[in-house]
């Protein structure tokens, strides 16, 4: 079964788009270092981290109007390797919040229907009301939608629709909260990895020096209350 990935509306920092897979699961592009972290995580630390739920294959889809969406293919994903309870494996419980879905369209496969989000409508409804005024739904942070737009544009310009991308599936730790308060902190006095290019190292060192990272070892990237 195909699963439409929605923007995660409570994202407050970062530049990579975080997506909603289902009510209790978020989805993000796979980074090898992050995957290694979750696969080798000591049992004693798991209570302090989101549950790792496995990997799923994702592809970009463009409809006749040029709207871009990301579709997850659970059947192509790898099984949950984190030792979780197999009865709650995410691709057996594809739940939907239909209030976030505005339209539907037929997939290229006969007889199959896929749900599609009109991203422009969805974004505008979160940011403005019918009169163009700021909406009252302040619990929705617009940063995630900004990242999602940029991510779709990057994928569309670099890859064709048939290319499969691997994404991580992680527990949505705020799924039980009606109005989650979130704080995104960047920890450490050094932000670049050992494999970073000289240009990237210089950019990250400068950012640390111009913020509290160099002096305090921590800086606030974003938050919502």
From TrEMBL:
Keywords: Kinase, Transferase. One of its GO terms (molecular function) is inositol hexakisphosphate kinase activity. One of its GO terms (biological process) is phosphatidylinositol phosphate biosynthetic process. Coiled coil: none annotated. It is an enzyme of class 2 (transferase). Its EC number is 2.7.-.-. Transmembrane segments: none annotated. One of its GO terms (cellular component) is nucleus. InterPro entries: IPK, IPK_sf. Belongs to the inositol phosphokinase (IPK) family. This is Kinase. It comes from Catharus fuscescens. The lineage of its organism: Eukaryota, Metazoa, Chordata, Craniata, Vertebrata. The gene is Ip6k3.
């Amino acid at each position: 079964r195909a699963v439409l990935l929605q923007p995660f509306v409570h994202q407050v920092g970062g530049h990579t788009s975080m997506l909603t897979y289902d009510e209790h699961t978020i989805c993000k592009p796979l980074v090898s270092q992050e995957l290694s972290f979750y696969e080798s995580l000591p049992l004693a630390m798991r209570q302090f981290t989101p549950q790792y739920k496995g990997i799923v294959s994702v592809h970009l889809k463009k409809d006749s109007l040029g709207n871009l969406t990301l579709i997850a293919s659970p059947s192509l994903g790898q099984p949950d390797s984190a030792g979780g309870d197999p009865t709650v494996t995410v691709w057996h419980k594809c739940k939907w919040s239909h209030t976030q879905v505005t339209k539907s369209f037929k997939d290229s496969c006969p007889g199959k229907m896929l749900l599609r989000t009109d991203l422009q409508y969805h974004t505008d409804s979160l940011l403005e009301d019918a009169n163009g005024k700021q909406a009252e739904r302040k619990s929705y942070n617009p940063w995630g939608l900004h990242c999602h737009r940029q991510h779709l544009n990057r994928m569309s310009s670099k890859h064709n629709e048939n290319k499969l991308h691997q994404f991580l599936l992680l527990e949505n730790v705020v799924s039980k909260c009606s109005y989650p308060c979130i704080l995104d902190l960047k920890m450490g006095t050094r932000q670049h990895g050992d494999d970073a290019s000289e240009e990237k190292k210089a950019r990250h060192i400068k950012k640390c020096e111009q913020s509290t990272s160099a002096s305090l070892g921590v800086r606030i990237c974003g938050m919502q209350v």
